[in-house]
Amino acid sequence: MSQNDTNTAHTLADLHPGETGTVSALHSQGPERRRMMDLGIIPGTTISVEMNSPLGDPVAYRVRDTLVALRREQAQLILIDKTTAKTTTEETS
Amino acid sequence: MTVTIPTTKPLNAHAACETCPMNRHLERLGVKMDNWDYVIALAGNPNTGKSTVFNALTGLRQHTGNWPGKTVARAEGGFQYGDERYKLVDLPGTYSLLAASVDEEIARDFILFGQPDVTVIVVDATRLERNLNLVLQVLEITDKAVVALNLMDEAERHGLQVDPRRLARDLGVPIVPMVARRNEGVKELLQVVHDVAVGEIQSRPHRIRTTHHQALDRAVDQLVTQIEAEFPGLPNVRWVALRLLDDDAQIEQAIRDGSLGDLSRDGSDTAIPDNLLIAEVSA
Amino acid sequence: MSADTTAKLLDSASALRQEVGENFHDALAEALYTDAAQIADRAVTRPDQRRRFDLDRTIDHLVTSRMFGFPIMIALLTLVFWLTIQGANVPSALLASLLLDTVHPALLDLGDMLHFPWWLSGVLFDGAYLAAAWVVSVMLPPMAIFFPLFTLLEDFGYLPRVAFNLDRLFSKAGAHGKQALSMTMGFGCNAAGVVATRVIDSPRERLIAIITNNFAICNGRWPTLIMVSTIFIGGAVPAALAGFVSALAVVGIAVLGVLITFASSWFLSRTMLKGEASVFSLELPPYRPPRIWQTIYTSMIDRTLIVLWRAVTMAVPAGIVIWTSSNVIIGGESIAEQMVTFLDGFGWLIGLNGVILVAYIVAIPANEIVIPTVLMLTVLTAGLSDVGEGAGVMFELDSNNAIREILHVGGWTTLTAINLLLFSLLHNPCSTTILTIYNETKSLKWTAVATLMPVVMGIGITLITATIARTFGWV
Questions:
Q1: What is the per-residue pLDDT for C379?
Q2: What confidence score (pLDDT) does residue B221 get?
Q3: End of a domain among B145, B164, B197?
Q4: Which residue from B minimizes the CA distance to C53?
Q5: Which residues in chain C have their CB less than 8 angstroms from residue B170's CB?
Q6: pLDDT value at B33 more than 70
Q7: Per-residue confidence (pLDDT) for residue A91, from 0 to 100
Q8: pLDDT tens-digit readout, C296-353
Q9: Which element (helix H / strand E) includes A25?
């Protein structure tokens, strides 16, 4: 992981598998926003990237102990603070 | 798929109950009350083994799948426990009762307007946090709820220890740990459902705290006072207030046409709006 | 409560809404999850140390990996189809010999014994019974194998991963990854595939999946493809290559179906179904060991028997129509022959013939009976007297050579064969599927689109291939 800078604005789409972040804001609107919130993606939520699909999109995220796949255009609307400590895929939960 | 099973015993009609107002509501939602003493609704997130619980209770084999929206139309079945006959209504699996999907509307409307005697919420013990989101919403609508804490074996497999007593204390409703696919906990669930249905267990469910959001808290309080004045005896005033503040067009409509008023003034004959009858459509 | 106070209540709700601000829903969702997290946290004790080996995660990383994700998926789905086709052969043959070779003659004898007039025996036993028996023997074994296998994969939790792997392709076409599953299901049976679209929770993507499901070749159409490929495509190359080439032709048509699925999904999402906004979501549930016996039982009841029953109820009237139209003679010719003559011109134009078109019209209820009907009608119209079972009696022959003889007499060429392959991919769904589409959409418009779009495409494409072939003098 080259970038540990939490000051840069990140979206969920910038995270790589094994990385973890905390949701800081949701830019999604309308039904999309509601769906994200129903899934428990709200400011303060910890999200980690579980795995990419073979074609790179969508990506599976671990949110509140569940595995949810989001498309890139959805992930780009979710702003996060990247957790600086690097976590490996094997150790995150 | 609407499933009804033939009852095995000759039934002595519970004529007294057929005329009681709660059953009138249910009948308008398409639930036939002729042969049943109590109506139990089964709610839960997708993939919680809700249909397995349904099967364990009714002995029916309803296909379950790892999919949201599997139970598209309402499935119904029945069972007898002790001297009472229970009708079990399987609601669509949903993550929430807030957003506007058809499935969520069906589930929400049934719990609100159907006023089932008991609502059983099936919960995946391995993914408690996500599941509690729905549980808390159901508890805003009804006191008569039981949480079926399913998939306890999976939780164990993942090294999780779930404390049902602590959960019961925090949620304020009975919790029944289960492994529905192995029929564990089914007897206990039946007993608790019975106790809640007849009123032996009185719950004081957890209510969503709005205290950390002052403007919200004030608005809810103010609206609750107003609603209580207009609909004395309405069982879920706070929830209605929350829905009104969230600009829920359906609840607004229910206030305008009086169907919400029905829930407080027993036995009124105002019609339930057409869109609430969606649940009747069977595949 | 009067209208007055109602209005007052709603007004004050609206005023308070302004006060709280636009983010009320956010605040509510936050309040809910804050409480949920706290309660869950107090009730659940997590292991101090995560176990080194997590089976679910290991499986997930394997079945969705860049390197193994697609090979595993293709291998598993191929295995399912192979087991279906191989496993169905023997029971299908047994059922056919029981229902067609034993019960059918016995029924005819019974008719004789009871002094049924010839037409009554004909309508009942040669028409209705034979069509139903045909459908049962062709459909039941593959479905009884395919549906439980598919359901086992579903219950284990693998299918959501297939949707995850393929979503990129479907999203490019404006569709949902879960359409991969309704499409796969469609290879077993389109009616079941249409029902399977229920897992797609966004209405627009679900409609796309419903309308395009017909491009997955259902098991009622496989026999036609296999027979035509074997006789005409395999027969046109050296014997050593015949098996391989004819298999390639069958697979080629199936792959073409998948490509057309993507193309028409893309087309629909940019034209008729443009702009209906929808939200993507796909949860990958934890793996759970499937309950094998219960799965077999429920998938038999829920899927196999329901689909079979619908098909049989559709096949019975079709059988009656086929028999009657072949036996009611007006002006020296049966109705069926007159229809064949009437449609011959148009059939020729699109590289087919009147017999095939009539067979497809009467076989709307069940594609399984296309080949037996084609053979019967060819014999009838060509006036062959030494083969077949008589007017209106569907039959099939054991030897491909014998079928080739008959079809040559009927004027078939390689173009007829290729266009029949194309047409069996691109024609209206069977009536069971049409009915299912209506039940699922409750919309005449979308049912009509789903029914007519493939036929129009089929006629267009066969017209083009026929014109090209004739222009270049290939036929």
A1: 87
A2: 87
A3: B197
A4: B158
A5: 39, 42-43
A6: no
A7: 42
A8: 887 777 678 877 887 788 888 888 998 999 899 888 889 999 999 999 999 999 999 9
A9: strand A20-26
Cβ separation B46–C151 shorter than 8 A: no
List beta partners, residue A11: A79
Residue type (1 letter), C255? V
Q: Which residue has the tokens 């009472």?
A: B84
B128 touches chain C (CB under 8 A): yes
Name the residue among A34, A40, A65 with its Cβ closest to that of B98: A34
Structure tokens at C349: 């134009």
Mutate to test the interface with C, among A23, A26, A39, A55 (most CBs of C within 10 A): A55
- Residue B196's closest CA among B250, B280, B274, B121? B121
Which chain A positions have a beta carbon within 8 Å of B128's beta carbon? 65
pLDDT on residue B272: 37
Say if residue B273's pLDDT is above 50: no
> How would residue B28 be classed by pLDDT, with cut points 50, 70 and 90?
low
pTM: 0.82
Both B98 and B184 in one domain: the answer is yes
CB contact under 8 A, C168 and A56: yes
Do B101 and B164 lie in one domain? The reply is yes
ipTM greater than 0.90, yes or no? no
Tokens (6 digits) for C11: 């007004």
User: Interior CA angle at C208 toward C202 and C209, to 5°?
Assistant: 85
Question: Which residue of chain C has the CA closest to B228?
Answer: C9
Q: Is B268 inside any structural domain?
A: yes
Confidence band for B34, pLDDT divided at 50, 70 and 90: low
CB atoms within 10 A of CB C473: 6
Closest residue to A39, CB basis, from B95, B98, B126: B95
Neighbours of B223 (CB within 10 A): 23
- Please check whether residue A71 touches B, CB under 8 A: no
Provide the 3-class DSSP secondary structure of residue B80.
strand
Residue C397: predicted pLDDT:
75
Domain boundary among B127, B162, B197: B197
Residue with the bigger pLDDT between B77 and C336: it is C336
- B266 shares a domain with B147: no
CATH number, position B66: 3.40.50.300
Q: Check whether residue B97 and residue B188 sit in a common domain.
A: yes
Using a CB–CB cutoff of 8 Å, tell me whether B65 touches chain C: yes
- Whether residue B274 is predicted with pLDDT greater than 90 in this model: the reply is no
For residues B178-207, average pLDDT = 91
Query: How confident is residue C457, by pLDDT bands cut at 50, 70 and 90?
Result: very high
Cβ of B209: how many Cβ atoms within 10 Å?
Answer: 14
Test B96 with A64 for CB contact under 8 angstroms. Answer: no
One domain for residues B227 and B107: no
Q: Where are the alpha helices (DSSP H) in C271-393?
A: 292-299, 306-327, 335-349, 354-362, 370-382
CA dist C437 and B229 (Å) reads 49
Report pLDDT for B131. 95
Question: Is B207 contained in some domain?
Answer: no
Residue B206 lies in a domain: no
Which residue numbers of A have CB closer than 8 Å to C's CBs?
A: 26, 30-35, 37-40, 42-45, 50-58, 60, 64, 66-71, 74, 89-91, 93
Chain C contact for B247 (CB, 8 A cutoff): yes
Chains with ≥3 CB–CB distances under 8 Å to B = A, C
B63, B187: one domain: yes
User: B4 lies in a domain?
Assistant: no
Do B229 and B111 lie in one domain? The reply is no
Assess contact for B128 and B48: CB atoms under 8 A: no
Domain count for chain B: 2
More confident of the two residues C132 and B35: C132
Q: Contact at 8 Å (CB) between C434 and C428?
A: yes
Residue ranges making up the domain that contains B269:
214-276
Nearest-Cα distance to chain C for B51, in Å, is 12
Same domain for B107 and B23:
yes
DSSP state for residue C389 in the 8-state scheme: S
Does the beta carbon of B81 lie under 8 angstroms from any beta carbon of chain A?
A: no
How far is it, in rounded angstroms, from Cα B192 to Cα B147? 10
